[in-house]
Amino acid sequence: MNMNENLDLDQLLADMPESLGLDAEATSAAPVAKPKRDLSQMMRRIPITLTLEVGSARVTLQELAELGAESVIELDVLAGEPLVIKANGTPVGRAEVVVSGENYGLKVVELSALDLDGLRG
Predict the structure, then answer these.
(1) What's the pTM value of the predicted model, to 2 decimals?
(2) Where in this chain does the record put each Flagellar motor switch protein FliN-like C-terminal domain (predicted)?
(3) CA 67 vs CA 47, 63, 73, 84, 87: distances in Å
(4) Could you say which of 51, 52, 55, 121 has the lowest number of CB atoms within 10 Å?
(5) What ranges do the domains of the chain cover?
């Protein structure tokens, strides 16, 4: 599923709090009490990219230039160790690789102390 297909920018803008100054009429007219919007409702629809980082390796430019089709580079992660889950580049937990149908998937092993529960409703 392509996350961009689910993004409805018009709806997101309509749900933004008007206190951000997006409504020119509201700033020129007398203040009117408006119901507060639940910001977490809007945040739940913001797409993010999850990636699974296998590991990394430091190489010199010379070593990079010498890489070929059958080259092997040792990574800084032990075989079988859980891999890092990143949300938009920020580490949020660890997972194992699984097969889901014809695709790879990830099985969450642990999540970091991020307050992800605050977005649940």
Answers:
(1) 0.56
(2) 43-111
(3) 36, 7, 9, 25, 30
(4) 121
(5) 1-44, 48-121
